[in-house]
């Protein structure tokens, strides 16, 4: 039996454009310089308050970051509607999830810097809610790379970290997996480079979702 824990943004869905536009409007509201798209992509995966602090060069969250986080959350669904944006699946993701969802030797979960509400929207939009039996979000645990998202999913499913595989596109996913004692698979279609993923502990790199399947055999 294995536990597969998937990151969401940058791994299952391509949400960078939506996140960046919401971040751009938030920074504008607070009179901050408009962030570059590359700056936004670099923080995807972190919990939102920490991400906003990092984008302003601060290692710790201050009150303004908390205020900006609240504004971002209030804008997110509005921006999604403005853009008519559905956070599309990356090519091959649906087929991969369909291939593993019926297996009796594999449990599927999500570990994400999204809010629980945001994850729910993605899961329901793409019909994945029936396949993912466990999840931890920014509402539940400390931000990645803290291992709590992984260890709590392991505890809930009675699985060991040694039998758990974390699949993600960010260096924070790789660091989180290693901190928890789990295997880390980096995906090449997301927002970090392959070299960055390897440098931060990736045990393997998948260049297409169907390559993930071999790690569950």
From TrEMBL:
Keywords: Hydrolase. GO terms for molecular function: phosphoglycolate phosphatase activity. One of its GO terms (cellular component) is cytosol. InterPro entries: HAD-like_hydrolase_sf, HAD-like_sf, HAD-SF_hydro_IA, HAD_2, HAD_sf, PGP-like_dom2. Pfam families: HAD_2 (PF13419). GO terms for biological process: DNA repair. This is HAD-IA family hydrolase. It comes from Rhizobium sophorae.
């Amino acid at each position: 039996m294995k536990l597969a824990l998937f990151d969401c943004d940058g791994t299952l869905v391509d949400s960078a454009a939506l996140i960046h536009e919401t971040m751009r409007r938030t920074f504008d509201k607070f009179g901050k310089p408009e962030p570059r798209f590359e700056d936004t992509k670099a923080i995807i995966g972190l919990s939102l308050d920490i991400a906003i602090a990092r984008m302003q060069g601060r290692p710790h969250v201050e009150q303004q970051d908390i205020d900006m986080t609240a504004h971002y959350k209030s804008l997110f669904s509005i921006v999604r509607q403005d853009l008519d944006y559905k956070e599309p699946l990356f090519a091959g993701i649906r087929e991969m999830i369909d291939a593993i969802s019926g297996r009796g030797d594999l449990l599927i979960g999500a570990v994400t810097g999204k809010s629980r509400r945001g994850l729910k929207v993605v899961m329901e939009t793409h019909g994945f809610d029936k396949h993912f039996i466990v999840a931890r979000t920014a509402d539940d645990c400390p931000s990645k790379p803290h291992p709590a998202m992984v260890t709590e999913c392991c505890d809930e499913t009675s699985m060991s970290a040694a039998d758990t595989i974390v699949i993600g596109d960010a260096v924070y996913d790789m660091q989180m997996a290693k901190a928890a004692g789990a295997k880390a698979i980096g995906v090449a279609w997301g927002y970090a480079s392959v070299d960055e993923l390897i440098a931060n502990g990736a045990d393997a790199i998948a260049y297409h979702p169907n390559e993930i399947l071999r790690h569950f055999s």
